[in-house]
Fold these 2 entries.
Entry 1:
Amino acid sequence: MNAISVSNLSAGYGADPVIKDINFNLECGRKLSIMGANGSGKTTLLRSLNGLIKYKGDIKILGHDLSSLKRREIAGMMAMMSQLSPVYFSYSIRETVELGRFARHENERAAGSLLKTSHESLVHDREMVDKCLELTGLKDIEKKQISSLSGGQLQRVFLARCFAQETPIILLDEPTNHLDLKYQAELMEHLENWSKGQTQLPDGTKVPNTLVGVFHDISLAVEISSDMIFIKNGEVLCQGEKDKVFTASVLENAYGMDVAGYMNRQRRIWGKMREY
Amino acid sequence: MNNKKTFGKNTLEVITILVCLIILGICMGIGSVDIPFADAMTILSGKIFGTNIPEDLAATTSILWTIRLPRAVTAFVVGGALALSGTIMQSVLQNPLASSYTLGVSSGASLGASIIIVTQFTVPLLGSFLLPTFGFAFGFATVLIVLAIASKFDSTLHSNTVILIGMVVSLFTNAVMTLVSSFARAHSQQLLLWQMGSFSAKRWYHVQILLPICIFGLIVTLYYARSMDIMSFGDEQAYAMGVNVRKRKKALLLLASLLTGVSVCFSGTIGFVDLIAPHAVRIVFGSSHKRVVPMSFFVGGAFMALCDMIARTAVESELPVGAVTGVIGAPFFVWLYLRGRKEA
């Protein structure tokens, strides 16, 4: 099954579209990186995949037409980790992660027309939240207020909240921004582990987990993804499996510089480092 | 410390509600004629459960039942409604300094009132409800205009747009009101009094209108508590978590305006309760709206009842209650804010 299929997509904020004529099919279980220079339209593409901005063309999520879905239905299939934003009201870490369960509840409520969600689903909630907190290493500090956390910790809380949404698709918007190297590595590991798993949809079918991310850091993108799509000035430059499209010439074209040469110079610098 | 807080939160909640109700009771008892507690109880049970009220309490009964009680209850309910609407505004607009007046309810209502006062327009059917009705209509119309303009500029109804348009429209409406009142200086005193706010001469029929609206508001807000939690993280995150922000925002903003509008038209534009009550509650109970919503209502109500009691008893003549809430509220707010910053 296709997790996401996009045809003739164009989207933007004003009269002129930022991204134009985008087409791709992403099978369930794949990991797609959206690549490109600043202002190329990466985030716009990601936001339109989540129905956050108006778009033209077709987007299908797990076979459903995105434009015909309600917000709670979209959130039942797809979680999104946005860039770090300020927190105005303080919740405990656990409370914040619990909010990720909202869409599931609403969907269950709508499906069963229940006034209250059943005891069973409340137990499942608690287990799920516990699991996500443990997975992200936050269980021990779950009572801490999020206003007192560092950027890295907050980012982990939001990741845990995404996991708690229990969706087969997660969208990431530069998730490693503002993160120390250690947290970057940890976050990537959490994502890697998650993407190997499956998620059971409310109707009982199991779907392999799918990841779509915009990464600032090229190396991280290469490390995590199975597929890549390169965007330049809002149009697709090149797309396909990582092995096929990750080439020096594509990088040079997409970023407007000799990326491979730059990376090689960096590698030489690291090579010169003494071990101790 | 955190453990202790969560452990006792439910108990603390019950205690807070009880304390708020006791404050309401004390406010009824204190006044130019002090009514002993036992007498008050006899009268209340007589009125509510139909037990016998002794003859010699007749005068006290009329003071307590027809003057003091409706006044204190009105103050309580108005305080609760303003606090509730402040809570909604702050969460929906993701701005801890937003208040129930951010969308121009009060300036709109004042404009409506000033037009009525200046033109001496009357509708016989409405009687003494003429001012409140028109105040409310104008206040609510102002909010609708703000929302209409805001959604025209910005289809996502971003909070900054809403706050900015709200401010602009408020200032404009205020200016028009100043113009209107400058044409009729003879009425400026009456207008000023209306704006300053007062709970004097409130009777049970005021409560009969206010209370159902507030209870309705409280229930609807509680129903949306989770959505409000989610929306306080910002529009984009809320959408991604499954809340239809645009729709919910409109509904909640209109609800908050309804609560403020009704309060303003019965008691004038009384500030600070809407700002302080939710803040104080968040500090003690955390941000979860399941707790913040009901607690704000009770704390706001008790604070307003207390301020009204001070307003009518502090000096011989009655003080404007809006001034009392400001004089007590402003320093308290600064203290609260600085204390919060020190901890952070």
Note: Chain A has two domains: 2-245, 246-276.
Entry 2:
Amino acid sequence: MFSASSPKNVTEEVSAEQKAYLAKIRLKRSVILLTQGSIIVVFFILWELLAGWGIIDAFLTSQPSRIYRTIMNLYQEGVLFAHIGITCLETILGFLLGTILGTIIAMLLWWSDFLAKVFEPYLVVLNSLPKIALAPIFIVWIGAGPSSIIVMALAISLIVTIMEVLNGFIAVDPDKVKLVQTFGANRWQTFIKVILPSSFPTIINALKINVGLSWVGVIVGEFLVSKAGIGYLIVYGGQVFQLDLVMASVLILAVAAAAMYKAVVYLEKFLVKW
Amino acid sequence: MLLLENIIEVNHLGMKYHSLNGEITALQHIDFAVKKGEFVCVVGPSGCGKSTLLSMIAGLLPPTSGQILIEGIPVTGASSKVGYMLQKDYLFEWRTILENILLGLEIRKTLSSKSRTYAIELLRTYGLYDFEDKYPQQLSGGMRQRAALIRTLAVQPEILLLDEAFSALDYQTRLVVSEDIYGIIKQENKTAILVTHDIAESISMADRVIVLSRRPAVVKNIYEIQLTCEKRTPISSRNAAEFKLYFNQIWKELDVHV
């Protein structure tokens, strides 16, 4: 009654038209990549030349070659990776704590409709509150060190995670829940077998947002209290008017943030296979 | 048939829904029985509480009044004797076909090498064995519905409840799938209750058709469907001479207005 045809519906032989089509797609992709690459290269070359010719003031704008020298100096002093490492560590910890705690709290709120209703207004207020305003409180309570920076990153990402993930849990098709209940599933089984896996795409999206938010929390935290880290280098460079150091740090930050975002995208591919 | 005992008895069943705007009586004074091996269809106007009735038989929803007996025992929660099929297949996209089919066994904590072998045997019998490692997305609508039925059968229920089980499919697929599912249910010797709003579908599959009225729904009439055709299947039934007579009677009974 059902044709048990091979699930692949791609034909083996490729026609000339198909080849031409594929070539066109590939060409388009290469042009986009090339343009993207050129923009950054041209930008740095212009920056370098304009600063070299004195058209822009390298004291205020710095210059790619000076940025490079600054980074090499940091490297030779042996502190480059220490600074990058501490900042990344704080970010990853803040990010993981935010995601895990946020998901657990969202689970509790999903579990109990009563709790969800009770805490809803509190969540709304906390969500609209600029968490940076809490930084002095954390510093007084926890002390001026990496711990308050991590708590800062956590505070910024936690509430958003709770709200995003809880909405994901609630949005799961009620008929999917009904299906497992016809098999007699209890609340925990319903959560594990349906709600959580259905919400993986939502959780991944929350992760993507959280990566950015954790960086904000960590850099702000480092501005305020730290003695090491990329945020510290930026603030220090600004205070001593060393724009080379500021620009170098911002550049490192951009690379590190992009790498972490990529890691989440990779995790998504790994988790969401279907 | 008459010698067989009633596997399901619905006694004076009633259901009320409450909301801030007041209460709605969905069903009242519903009485009927289903015999072992019988295929019963429930038809009624949309919104009359057909699906509510199935949910109560499945033990998902406690009735406001009356009771339901399955093999003489009152229903108080999800029963292991009952398998439920929904309108869509709801195969989980993050599980392979085999993992989907083992879902019920996992939840009931009856997954053993024996029950697993039984499930795989069902896949083999019904032509999905080659697809056990595929994800649902890779299957056609008909095959997915078939996989959903096997998921229900894997927990070895006595009774199958089909809640508009074919409504989400397009017309041609629906005819083929209902033929297919009917064949499997008969071959596995299961008792089935199908809720549908499609009169032709109900006559083509049922031994008896229970007609419900508009809300508050009561049993308006019960038709014994006796068709003269060679080997009865949903598609061959549609060619029987009596088919049209039943159709017209039930159509009048439903009294549909727009």
Note: Chain B has nine helices and ten strands.
